[in-house]
Specification:
Elements (H helix, E strand, L loop, with lengths): L6 E5 L3 H13 L4 E5 L2 H8 L7 E5 L1 E2 L2 E2 H10 L10 E5 L4 H9 L4 E4 L4 H12 L16
Parallel strand pairs: 1-2, 1-3, 3-6, 6-7
Antiparallel strand pairs: 4-5
Length: 143
């Protein structure tokens, strides 16, 4: 299963969404599902010594921006990993939101309501190790 031995952080102010995601994530065999209902709770879970392997962040968390949290992770303002796999969630797919997510090099975007199959596919893709770039070789160079 895709989550075996991993910890996932779910950031959403809606308890029903957190519960639904938690159940699905446990069925994917995530070892730990950490839930945050605020950006501050999420930052606490991500802080030094954090062992989060994947973050699912709602675009709008109460009156705070989940997108800003993702940007803070990517720029290193929120430790511990700039390369943490992040999937954003939203109720609508506005073109400017999708472009903004691509600009941050996020690992995916989910539109609510979420289907279990789509969630599983997006998570599997986000956790897939990046493809190795072949070494730069000049024509005629020995291996």
């Amino acid at each position: 299963m895709i989550g075996r031995g991993k910890t996932v952080l779910v950031v959403d102010c809606d308890e029903a969404i957190r519960q639904m995601l938690g159940a699905a994530l446990r069925s994917f065999r995530f070892e730990r599902v950490v839930q945050a209902r605020t950006i501050d709770e999420a930052k606490g879970a991500l802080g030094p010594g954090g062992t989060i392997d994947l973050a699912l962040i709602d675009w709008q968390v109460g009156d705070q921006s989940g997108f800003d949290l993702a940007a803070d992770i990517r720029t290193g303002r929120v430790p511990p990993r700039r390369d943490l796999p992040i999937i954003m969630m939203s109720w609508k797919a506005e073109p400017k939101s999708v472009l903004a997510a691509q600009g941050l090099k996020l690992n995916g975007m989910l539109i609510k309501p979420l289907s279990r199959d789509t969630l599983e596919r997006k998570i599997a893709a986000a956790l897939e190790p990046p493809a190795k770039t072949p070494p730069n070789r000049f024509l005629g160079q020995a291996s």
